[in-house]
Design a protein that fits this description.
The complex is a heterodimer of chains A (165) and B (287). Chain A has 165 residues and is α/β, with parallel strands linked by helices. In chain A, 42% of the residues lie in helices and 16% in strands. Chain A has a five-stranded parallel β-sheet. In chain A, strand 1, helix 1 and strand 2 form a beta-alpha-beta unit. Chain A starts with 8 loop residues before the first strand and ends with a helix. In chain B, 72% of the residues lie in helices and 0% in strands. The model of chain B has no long low-confidence stretch (mean pLDDT 90). Chain B has 287 residues and is mainly alpha-helical. Chain B is built from ten helices and no strands. Chain B has one domain. In chain B, helix 1 packs across helix 3, helix 4 runs antiparallel to helix 5 and helix 7 runs antiparallel to helix 10. The chains are: A alpha/beta (165), B mainly alpha (287).
Chain lengths: 165, 287
């Protein structure tokens, strides 16, 4: 299909980070980097988002929040961990309240390392996520079509047995 | 009769295309004003295409019905207008459509959505006087509420109704959900309301909402054009230019102003309406 990838909407969530990566994520939207030219919108609404951009590690307090945000996003969806804290826990890894990277709570697809991750790296990560998003959208559509034909076949079979009786 | 059917059919088919392109143009011009490259002007179509292919999460089963009602009322409004019927009736229908949208936002549990709905009601209160006065202005200028009669007038309505036009363009900022009056929902995310009335709309409900907005924008732009159209065929060209200029002005206002509080919106909208349209009304009634 190749058209879904033109409209990736982001949900940005800041876990327990130092805010360095968050500033870099917002820098992607400024005139210098202009992520909107790829159709990217930084939406604040999980129900409308396609790509979950998470910065900072997971702690005991935000674990439930991250899980809920992920669950509220409709499929197909892709998760991008931005910055070394979201990837592994980073410098905060040994802290008493830190559980670890984003992948301790939700399945992460793309890892963007860096402290802080540079806007170029973030955009690169998003573009990789967009390709994956397209792949998943195609898969989902193929599955739906498959289900439809399966249902139709079942109905046909039902009708035939009905006629036979 | 045949002309009416043709223009209704043209509205049904081309309004989403024109509305989507206008919306894409809006994003492109906004980006250029901010020194960015911006997305393709076909971006709104890509967005809606994607929204229809996403998994649909049901927040409240009635939401789809209400959004569908919103869409069909807007389409019907446009058909009435482009079919040459009563402008007053068109705006009553449009308000009915807006009510469906408010219900769709009210029935969800999201506080952002509910707050957006109550702000949408406030917005209706702000723009309705100017809209009704604009219709009355057409009646006083041309002697009829019917679009088919207004376009047959000897001279364009704008000559006698410049005040009504200014008031209508002022409240058009509210109707097009542009800053400084984008209180109920915003095209720009990450503000205090998240996405306002559209917070709990995802996938195909948001897609339907977008399509309804395209139809509504085309209808509103048609109404702006009506101020310039008379029986001279060249007036249609003038109307198109006026519509594009008005749309550009709205984009400019959007990009150069910050959102205001509802008190300011109410005072300024009613102030401008009473002052400009009111004075115009008095002049037309007395002279």
């Amino acid at each position: 299909m190749g058209i879904v990838k033109r409209s990736p909407w982001l949900l940005h969530y800041d876990g327990s980070s130092c805010n360095g990566c968050d500033i870099e994520v917002l820098a992607c939207l400024t005139p210098v980097y202009d992520a909107e030219r790829f159709g990217i919108i930084n939406t604040g609404d999980p129900m409308q988002a396609d790509i979950f951009l998470i910065t900072g590690g997971i702690n005991t307090q935000n674990q439930a929040v991250v899980k809920q945000l992920y669950d509220q996003m409709p499929s197909p969806k892709v998760v991008v961990a931005v910055g070394v804290c979201a990837c592994t826990g980073g410098v905060f890894k040994e802290c008493y309240n830190i559980i670890g990277g984003a992948d301790t709570t939700i399945p992460v697809d793309i890892y963007v390392p860096g402290c802080a991750a540079r806007p170029q790296a973030i955009i690169d990560g998003i573009i990789k996520a967009v390709a994956l998003f397209q792949e998943r959208a195609d898969e989902q559509e193929a599955n739906q079509k498959g289900q439809k034909t399966e249902n139709a076949a079942l109905n046909e079979a039902g009708k035939e047995t009905g006629n036979g009786n | 009769m045949i002309y009416r059917i043709i223009s209704i059919a043209a509205f049904l088919i081309f309004a989403p295309l024109v509305g989507g392109l206008l919306s894409g143009l809006d994003r492109k011009i906004s980006a250029r004003m901010q020194g960015r490259i911006g997305p393709s002007i076909f971006q709104p179509f890509y967005d809606v295409r994607k929204l229809f292919s996403k998994q649909f999460i049901v927040v409240n089963p009635a939401q789809v019905f209400l959004i569908m009602s919103f869409l069909f009322t807007i389409i019907f409004t446009g058909c009435m207008f482009f079919g040459g019927n009563d402008v007053l009736l068109c705006f009553f229908l449009l308000s009915t459509g807006a009510t469906f949208l408010i219900f769709a936002a009210c029935i969800t549990n999201s506080p952002y959505s509910n707050l957006g709905a109550s702000r949408e009601l406030l917005q209706m209160m702000c723009y309705e006087p100017a809209v009704l006065l604009a219709c009355i202005g057409f009646y006083l200028a041309t002697g009829s509420f019917n679009v088919s009669d207004i376009i047959q007038a000897d001279m364009p309505a704008i000559v006698k109704t410049p005040g009504f036009f200014i008031a209508f363009v002022f409240i058009l900022t509210i109707k097009l959900r542009k800053s400084p009056f984008d209180l109920s929902t915003s095209h720009h995310p990450h503000q205090e309301l998240v996405k306002g009335i559209t917070t709990d709309m995802g996938a195909k409900t948001l897609g339907l909402f977008e399509v309804a907005e395209w139809y509504e924008h085309v209808f509103l732009m048609g109404f702006v054009g009506l101020f310039f159209i008379n029986k001279n065929p060249w007036s249609y060209l003038v109307a198109v230019i006026a519509v594009l200029a008005t749309y550009f002005l709205e984009i400019l206002i959007d990009n150069t102003s910050a959102r205001v509080k509802w008190q300011v919106m109410l005072k300024s909208a009613w102030g401008v309406t009473l002052l400009v349209a009111g004075v115009n009304l008095i002049i037309l009634m007395v002279v």
